[in-house]
Amino acid sequence: MNQQLAGFAPTPVVARMENHGRTMLKVAMASGQDLFARAGSMVAYEGFVQYEPNPPAVRQIAGQWVTGEGAPIMKCSGDGLLYLADYGADVVVVNLNNDSISVNGTNLLAFDAHLQWGVERVKGLAKFAGQGLWNVTVAGTGWVALTSRGTPIVVDCGRGEDETYVDPDALVAWSPNLKVKGKRSFKASSLIGRGSGEAYQMAFSGQGIVVVQPSEDSTDRLRVRG
């Protein structure tokens, strides 16, 4: 039996963050290298790892994501290996090098605690769709892990003068320097996105990338999980 399961065993540590398969994140934890992660995303750990849900340092910032008490972030600290997942979603690991990325709040899995970050509502969309879209901008040098409902595509917006249009429910992340605006159009029931009537897209222009998932999953995954 051990031989049959050997192919699923953890691999040697190569980097601070790396994939273990498509849908699991492995984080090499060490003293002084704390991590912020989605609350409830821990599936296993080795060694000594402590968790602090809704830490005071992030309560005021992250609390904007949810209504009621609690924020969807926990602080992880200690020594060992930490494994995170989000309901079987694909995990994408990004290593920032004095760079920044803007992530849809529902797609942020984990990031190094020393990185600079902030939460804001995406401008230009609420007036069209009647609802907000929260994004988290993470900047500095360190690791960030995103989730995607399926294998994402990365669109380079700098290849032409045309704007890139994305369904808000399929949006994962984008370069913060891109210009963003909302666009409203009328469509048949099954041509663009889900449902019928008016369609709302986000238009990106400028130099940068947009990460899009092959799913229009608007399920609220920001609720704190026990």
TrEMBL record:
UniProt-listed InterPro entries: AIM24, AIM24_sf, Trp_RNA-bd_attenuator-like_dom
Domain of life: Bacteria
Pfam families recorded: AIM24 (PF01987)
Coiled coil (residue ranges): none
PANTHER family assigned to the protein according to its UniProt record, in alphabetical order: ALTERED INHERITANCE OF MITOCHONDRIA PROTEIN 24, MITOCHONDRIAL (PTHR38074:SF1)
Protein name: Uncharacterized conserved protein, AIM24 family
Organism the protein comes from: Streptomyces wuyuanensis
